[in-house]
Specification:
This protein is an alpha+beta fold. The protein folds into two domains: 7-204, Fructose-1,6-Bisphosphatase, subunit A, domain 1 (Fructose-1,6-Bisphosphatase, Chain A, domain 1, 2-Layer Sandwich), CATH 3.30.540.10; 217-334, D-Maltodextrin-Binding Protein, domain 2. The chain is 35% helix and 20% strand. The chain has a six-stranded mixed sheet. Helix 1 (7-32) packs antiparallel against helix 2 (49-65), helix 4 (122-131) packs antiparallel against helix 6 (147-156) and helix 8 packs parallel to helix 9 (271-283).
């Protein structure tokens, strides 16, 4: 550990370990088969036991080490004592070893806002659970599964744990855990991976790739589409459209060269969906804005909804902003 790491570096290091703990909780609940599903606002807005336990673990763990930060989580949970076995006190040594960017060295706990989505891709998580038992995920390689199982397996790619850190309204650092990464390798492989990034420092835990310059591949929503979303996607003149769940998953597609742009011209995404992915994307030179090209603010007192949609790219952001149809812009202004 380097000398006396800055507060924000210790927070990111803790968030890394806490996200891994949350990912393990997500896997454990799926394994149990008892998801405890409740509908929040409808069939496409679900909460599971994994959402609840993961958020309790994340918030309680971070508050124990950083009592003066502000944490805003997706789930509206009652205030109650958290079991000790949900607490994670570890910190990622690889992060503590890195030098903090000069702009953030003097930040105090009370200046930092943490946005938490304990289980991004809940709908896909529940659908996968209905289609398979965990032994299919951890004990059988993909080739051993039938078509139904293959679909369920793919859905687990959509699931992430998101912890974003903001300062003065800007997403400056983020951690994304993919609980089921490596499922294709069968029982011999360790499940899960964690990636993180910070402005001025870079992003880690994945291999940065780009879609070939002569191709436009758009990733968009799998389960929250409408005419406005479809019209906007088509206006980008994509060579291919990928429809998947989870905002975190879509940003991973951008930074790993599977998609050129994430286009979602509709309200629906919240700040906890975009804070961590935005920080990682920005750390490698990408951009995340609304459909008008305006950046989102992550102060503690902002509205949670990203009401003007989400447009994210690794490169050529202005091209996509300029192709948003006036009809789509008008529809978003009226929201």
């Amino acid at each position: 550990m380097s000398g006396n790491p800055a507060v924000v570096m210790r927070l990111v290091a803790s968030a890394y370990s806490v996200a891994e703990k949350a990912g393990a909780i997500v896997r454990k609940v799926l394994h149990s088969g008892e998801l405890g599903i409740v509908e929040k606002t409808g069939a496409n807005d679900l909460q599971t036991l994994a959402d609840r336990l993961a958020q309790k673990s994340i918030c309680a763990s971070l508050y124990r080490s950083f009592p003066n930060i502000t944490i805003i989580g997706e789930e509206d949970l009652p205030s109650e004592e958290v079991q000790e076995d949900l607490i994670e006190s570890g910190q990622a040594e690889e992060i503590l070893q890195k030098s903090c960017p000069e702009d953030y060295k003097a930040l105090k706990e009370e200046e930092l806002v943490v946005w938490v989505d304990p289980l991004d891709g809940t709908k896909e998580y529940t659908e996968a659970s209905r289609c398979l038992h965990l032994q299919d995920v951890v004990q059988k390689p993909l080739k051993g599964l039938n078509k139904t199982h293959g679909t369920a397996i793919w859905l687990l790619d959509n699931v992430t744990v998101l912890i974003g850190i903001a300062y003065e309204g800007r997403a400056i650092a983020g951690v994304i855990n993919q609980p089921f990464y490596n499922y294709q390798l069968g029982s011999g492989a360790a499940l899960g991976r964690t990636m993180w990034g910070m402005l001025g420092l870079g992003a880690f835990g994945f291999e940065l790739r780009e879609v070939p310059a002569d191709k436009r591949i758009v990733t968009t929503t799998r389960s929250h589409s409408n005419k406005t979303v479809t019209d906007c996607v088509n206006a980008m003149e994509p060579h291919e459209v990928i429809r998947v769940g989870g905002a975190g998953n879509k940003i991973i597609q951008l930074i790993e060269g599977k998609a050129s742009a994430y286009v979602f011209a509709s309200p629906g995404c919240k700040k906890w969906d975009t804070c961590a992915p935005e920080a990682i994307l920005h750390a490698v030179g990408g951009r995340l804005t609304d459909m008008f090209g305006n950046t989102y603010c992550y102060n503690a007192d902002v509205k949670h909804m990203n009401s003007a949609g989400v447009l994210a790219t690794l490169r050529n952001h202005d091209y996509y902003v300029n192709r948003v149809p006036p009809s789509v812009q008008q529809a978003l202004k009226s929201k």
